[in-house]
Amino acid sequence: MAEFVPVSGVKNHVYEACHHVVKALRASDNNLDANLRKLLSDLESHLSTFGIADTRVEDTGFSEIEERFKEAVKTILSWETNHSTILEAGPSEADQFFQALYDVQTVVMGFKALPIKSNHKEKDIYNQATVAIDIAMLRLEKELCDVLHQYKQHVQPEYLAVSSRGKDLVYDESFVSLDDEVVVEASSHEDDDEQISEFYNSDLVDPSVLPHIKAIANAMFACEYHQAFCEALISVQREALDEYMLTLEMERFSCVDVLKMGWEDLNGAMRKWTRAVKIITQVYLPSEKQLCEQILGDFESVSSACFIEISKDTVLSLLNFGEAVALRSCQPEMLERFLSMYEVSAEILLDVDNLFPDETGSFLRMAFHEVSRKLADHTTATFLKFKDAIALNESARPFPGGGIHHLTRYVMNYLKLLPEYTSTLDSLLHNINVEDSIPEKTGQDVLPSTFSPMARHLRSIVTTLESSLERKAQLYADESLKSIFLMNNFRYMVQKVKGSELRHLFGDEWIRKHIARYQRDVTNYERSTWSSILALLTDNNNNSERRTLRERCRLFSLAFDDVYKNQTRWSVPDPELRDDLHISTSVKVVQSYRGFLGRNAARIGEKHIRYTCEDIENMLLDLFECLPSPRSLRSSRRR
After folding, report:
1. What is the dihedral of CA 411, 413, 416, 418, to 10 degrees?
2. pLDDT at 19 over 80
3. Are the beta carbons of 283 and 199 closer than 8 angstroms?
4. Average pLDDT value over all residues in the chain
5. For the segment 442-460, what is each residue's pLDDT rounded down to a tens digit?
6. d(C-alpha 542, C-alpha 526), whole Å
7. What pTM was estimated for this model as a whole?
8. Quick count: other Cβ atoms within 10 Å of Cβ 369?
9. How far is the CA of 461 from the CAs of 383, 405, 429, 465, in angstroms?
């Protein structure tokens, strides 16, 4: 395909054309005044110094130029009503069009080198040439738009892979909606990174048509229609970018829209923003910049200006969303989303600096850095407020059944999500001191991560949670149930730390300390529940009379009935802990009861013994099952 020669490449041809025009003017009008004749002679002499006016040129008549000119105009005009693209017509037709445009432009430039045109024929040729140029430019502008649309290519599908997250997390300020199953599904932060960690530039336009587009650019720039070319390129590519944003499901929201959004809608929009801003800055915009450079590489400053114009509306809409989110209140349930947004905003800053290195793009570069700073400040404030919200979470009534409190589940499951953001939180928290219950130690068995800024803050959050649980435990009138509640919740905290990446942050000393803590609660439960009951089964010199033995047996049965009625409604959700309690209790209670009956059954009398040892053993297995109502007491009383 013949490519239109840029202005710098046609200098000699322009001189040749001017020479033809000079000879034609001298031959066409014998009434030229002396001044004009002298001007033409001087111009002819000037052109000759460039080696243009050789014998071959002298012998070329104006009629040959005029004929060639007419053919060129005819070729250009033939495309005025042709709705197909020049590219589709094939290389030969494209060569003819660009050659015709070159011939007409040569004549126009030749006339521009002469004084004001007064000759009628000269004016007519010049006007025909300028009209043809206008028509050609309109045709090329349409050609540019058509080719860009027709040969547009989309970013590869793998860049659009949706997160493997099963469902969005939904939070509320009552700390009741983050459970274990949701956390398992939600822990896919690293998977998301893997999906978008190997970005590279994509071809937004079929590479095979780039020489044709570049030929259009050179022709329009040579004809001083660079503004029309740039406007067309910007318009088409900006529209393509808008369409791509719809593919990413990223809408444009005003600040007011973002501030009014409910949590569920905002949560979804923040997830989409995190994904979209990374793909746009690391894939799409580098590809767009590459395209501009491929087309306008000979016009570097123009290439940069076009790229910025194509990008800025979309970029600013993304930045506006980030700024609006940072204006919302620091709600604890938004912490993970803020972390994700800040992490991405910090990660892409180098990419942004490379995208907009020039002064013309400095406003976008600075805007990205400012949004990242605001997200950093807001994320830090939200993290710190999370601990405050835990401290302020009070209860008016004891938690039913002494089970694992919603606050405990919420906090520990939320903390399980945070190790994925360790480096981010360490950078945000490194200048913020916090009290830590575990003194810093050194040694082979101590991981440095245990005393990182994030680790200290997470332990501080759990310390706040522990204080809240202690206050909640005081709402129980029953000392045994208070111990069950504390045992359940401290055990849950230990299990969450041991079974996750939190272990590397909390450290083994913290785990040992808290295991000892809930084991003390187990001991307190057994003492407060069974000590007075088992005392009834202990023989001494004062408890040897037959009536006294029967009374003690009766009182034991009544006390056991009371424990059974109450504690079958209590909850120990951890099956391992529940089994341990059953075994421990059974060993103490059944063994004591069996010894008591073995020593005293004959004197008590069978009809006064309500429960056998097997009855007691089986009934103990019903404890802590959190039944909605008391189970009917079994009786193995023999008739």
Report:
1. -60
2. no
3. yes
4. 82
5. 544 556 678 889 999 999 9
6. 26
7. 0.76
8. 15
9. 10, 16, 14, 6
Do the beta carbons of residue 175 and residue 410 sit within 8 Å?
A: yes
CB count, 10 Å around CB of 394?
9
For 96, how many CA atoms within 13 A lie in the half-sphere containing its CB?
14
Give CA–CA dist 145/126, Å, rounded.
29
Nearest CA among 441, 281, 255, 429 for reference residue 350: 281
Amino acid at 198: E
Provide the percentage of residues in the chain whose pLDDT is more than 70.
76
Q: Which residue has the higher pLDDT, 602 or 162?
A: 602
Which residue type occupies 328?
R
For residues 191 and 197, what is the distance between their CA atoms, to the nearest angstrom?
10
Nearest residue to 271 (alpha-carbon basis) of 415, 420, 169, 156: 169
Highest mean pLDDT: which of 55-59, 82-86, 180-184, 268-272? 268-272
Q: What is the predicted pLDDT for the residue at 37?
A: 53
- Write out the H or E segment, with its range, that includes residue 22: helix 11-28
- Residues 130-157 pLDDT 10s: 888 898 899 999 999 999 999 999 876 5
Q: How far is CA 611 from CA 190, 352, 546, 553, 600, in A?
A: 58, 78, 18, 10, 14
Banded model confidence at residue 175, pLDDT cuts 50, 70, 90:
low
45 close to 90: Cβ distance less than 8 angstroms: no
Question: Would the pLDDT of 437 be above 80?
Answer: no
What tokens appear for 376 in the block? 């950093």
Q: How far apart are CA 570 and CA 631, in angstroms?
A: 12
Q: Could you tell me the two tokens for 211?
A: 């020489």
Is residue 165 within 8 A of residue 188, CB to CB? The reply is: yes
Alpha-carbon span 553 to 292, nearest angstrom: 95
> For residues 114 and 21, is the Cβ–Cβ distance under 8 A?
yes
Residue with tokens 């490519």: 3
CA distances from 590 to 477, 599, 612, 613, 623 (A): 27, 14, 10, 6, 14
**Main-chain phi, psi angles of 478, to 5 degrees:** -90, 120
Q: How far is CA 535 from CA 15, 359, 484, 623, in A?
A: 122, 87, 22, 21
Question: In the chain, what are the helix, strand and coil shares in percent, each to the nearest 5?
Answer: 70, 0, 25
Task: Identify the three-state secondary structure at position 152.
Answer: strand
CATH 1.20.1280.170 residue ranges for the chain: 157-162+169-392
Contact 2, 94 (CB under 8 A): yes
- Res. 198: pLDDT tops 50: no
CATH class of segment(s) 157-162+169-392: mainly alpha
Alpha-carbon gap, residue 386 to 454, rounded angstroms: 14
How many of the other CB atoms lie within 10 Å of CB of 612? 15
CA 522 to chain centre: 45
CA distance 455 to 506: 6
Q: Give the H/E segment covering residue 377.
A: helix 362-392
What is the per-residue pLDDT for 378?
95
Write the single-letter amino acid at 416. Answer: K
pLDDT above 70: residue 475: yes
More confident residue, 411 or 93: 411
Taking residue 112's Cβ as centre, other Cβ atoms within 10 Å add up to 11
- For residues 375 and 326, the answer to whether their CB atoms sit within 8 Å is yes
What's the CA gap between 295 and 538, in Å, rounded?
98
Q: What is the spatial distance between Cα 334 and Cα 329, in angstroms, rounded to a whole number?
A: 9
Coil/strand/helix, residue 625: strand
Of 308, 408, 412, 432, the residue nearest 361 (C-alpha): 308
